[in-house]
Amino acid sequence: MKFKALFPGFLALALIAAPHAAHACQQTFTIAGLVKRPLTLTIEDLAKFQSTTVRINHITQKKTFHGVFSTQGVPLKNLLETALVEKEVSGYNKPVDLAIVVRDKDGRKVTLSWGEVFYRNPSDVTIAYQSTPVMPHHQNCGSCHSSGFTKPVMEQLSRPVCLPKLVMANDFHADRSLEGIVSIEVVDLHPRVKTKKKDELVSTRLVISGAGPTPFMITDLSTLPRTTVTVNVVGDGRGFHGRSTYEGVPLAELLTAVGAKPDLRSVVTVSAVDGYRSLVSWGELVLSPEGRNIIIADTENGQPLEKNGKFILALPGDLAADRDVKAVDRIEVHTFNDPGKIYVIGLGPGDTDLMTREAVTYLGRSDLVVAPAKLYKDFSSLLAGKPLLFDSMSLIHKSFFAESHPESRGRELDEKFVAERENAVKQMKEELKAGRSIAFLDWGDPMLYGSSRWIRTHFADYELETVPALSAFNVSNALLERDLTCRGSLVMSVPSALKANQALLKAAAEHGDTLVIFIGLKEFREMLPLFRTHYQGSTPVVIVYNAGISSAEHTVRGTLDDILDKTKAEQEQFLGMIYIGPCLMEKSGECH
Asked: Exposed, middle or buried by CB within 10 Å (0-12, 13-18, 19+), for 120?
């Protein structure tokens, strides 16, 4: 099928509804990364925002036709403003060097620049929650096209559009308009690079890195294809500063000349000698008609640049000139193509509002999930339909494996347990080799008696990354309203470790240090004689049940002598934290 023959039979168009042409194939998507308020949004949530209508001709660089649609969506700018994008404390607070990485359900990524979202009209980049095909007014095109041409075209108009969809309205090619997006992440590539104020900006050459195995130094642009652009110099903070005509080389041409390969996952950072920098995405350079007008200029109004360095980055399509960079001395190409990783993510002890911002961000970065089936189900609204690779519950400990395999005993059980773990490790390694990342989900803080301990011996440190999390311990402390370190120290343990190290238990009891016991509800009764060996019967005891689950969390207070009577009606046998020691009785300020 020749591309130039696509449109003659479709000149007269009319909108007609096609309810089957769009569907929400993702339950949720997340906006995270460098934001103060991570968002988890559904299609229904998007429909509550002020929306705009944008038409998209979905035709790719390879001239593949995927339909013409009228979409209803929310400007990405509005969503990011709701999420409160904010740089961490650094020496460069302008957001013009931020990247925005968008992922779809199949793990594909495209990267946008801050400027093309915030310095263009808001409707240029939207997240669509509704899509209606634009159908030909005359669908019988036999007079000008064969059925072999019209049938696949009509099929594309009737295809299901997977929502939510990233719609890049001004891209001539629609390769960045991903469907079924699962995450949007704001990223700072240079969080620690500060600006250095200079009295005079001087740069006689620029260095390009990341385009090939070695950096390139450029001192002269005269041999490369040139173009002329006119820029209205309007700053967000300083108003109108006139109009300039620049001549130079399109940034895309310059990068191609030194061997850079266009990649929609890539971005280009352009920096000045004083550290001022801005970011341009490869997508806006090669897919948008405005891309050729993004230039590295060496003349202004017909004269060679001298006052502000030899080279300037000029972006005439921006509505604010904040991305323009004077005295350019460095250009860096960065591709978001990290190898697959296992992200060990603690989801907190219960309610979703106890998750960290980092947890939401790393869920968005992941392609697959490993988790206990219950945890996967309880947090499914945050997982955006990511598939469960396997249920990890029975692999945490042999006792859990035995519960799910009652038919096996003794050596047979041991062999099955080892084989299941080995198979699980094999699956994860295959996914990492394929470049996919895995969210290994855990309750609470994964580094406090977490369920990921067994996998760490099978993977190198660079293949694993642990995401910070609150523990049931942290929530329980807040519920107790006591200074647990009033005697100077605090001892955290589990029943098996206390049995094996009674000297530690004795020392804690003699000094009055607070003893905190994880995973101890089932064994608490049988361990009471051991505790009474070292503690007096009047020693305060508090058991916190379901810490972090607001609908069920509560405390039971007593002493070693009466705590069993006070807890005999409790049904929970797993989610509990046990505290023993005199600090439980003393309020803040009463410590010795």
From this structure: buried
pLDDT at 432: 94
Structure tokens at 2: 């020749």
483 Cβ contact list (under 8 Å, min separation 6): 583, 586, 587, 588, 591
Q: Where in the chain is the domain with CATH 3.90.420.10?
A: 3-188, 206-335
The span from the CA of 441 to the CA of 318, in Å, is 42
- By C-alpha distance, which of 581, 557, 577 is closest to 487? 581
Q: Which residue has the tokens 């860096």?
A: 332
The pTM is what? 0.81
The C-alpha R_g of the chain, in whole angstroms, comes to 30
- CATH 3.40.1010.10 residue ranges of the chain are 342-470
Eight-state DSSP code of residue 8: G
Is the Cβ–Cβ distance between 109 and 102 less than 8 Å?
A: yes
- The DSSP string of 356-384 is -HHHHHHHHH-SEEEE-HHHHHHTGGGTT
d(C-alpha 139, C-alpha 61), whole Å: 26
Query: What's the per-residue H, E or C state across 479-548?
Result: HHCCCCCCCCCEEEECHHHHHHCHHHHHHHHHHCCEEEECCCCCCHHHHHHHHHHHCCCCCEEEEEECCC
CA 88 to chain centre: 16
Letter for the amino acid at 452?
Answer: S
Q: Which two tokens stand for residue 139?
A: 């669908």
pLDDT tens profile 19-48: 444 566 767 899 999 999 999 899 999 999
Ranges under pLDDT 50 in the chain: 1-21, 588-590, 592
Backbone phi, psi, residue 246, to 5°:
-110, 145
Query: Residues of 175-207 as b/e, b for ≥16 C-beta within 10 angstroms?
Result: bbbbbbbbbbbbbbebeebebeeeeebebeebe
CATH superfamily for domain 342-470: Tetrapyrrole methylase, N-terminal domain (3.40.1010.10)
Structure tokens at 464: 């694993």
What CATH fold (topology level) applies to the domain 206-335?
Answer: Sulfite Oxidase; Chain A, domain 2 (3.90.420)
How far CA 391 is from CA of 363, 369, 374, 560, in Å, comes to: 17, 9, 9, 38
Cα 141 to the chain's mean position, in Å? 46
Architecture of domain 3-188: Alpha-Beta Complex (3.90)
CATH no., domain 473-584: 3.30.950.10
Backbone angles phi, psi at 353, to 5 degrees: -75, -5
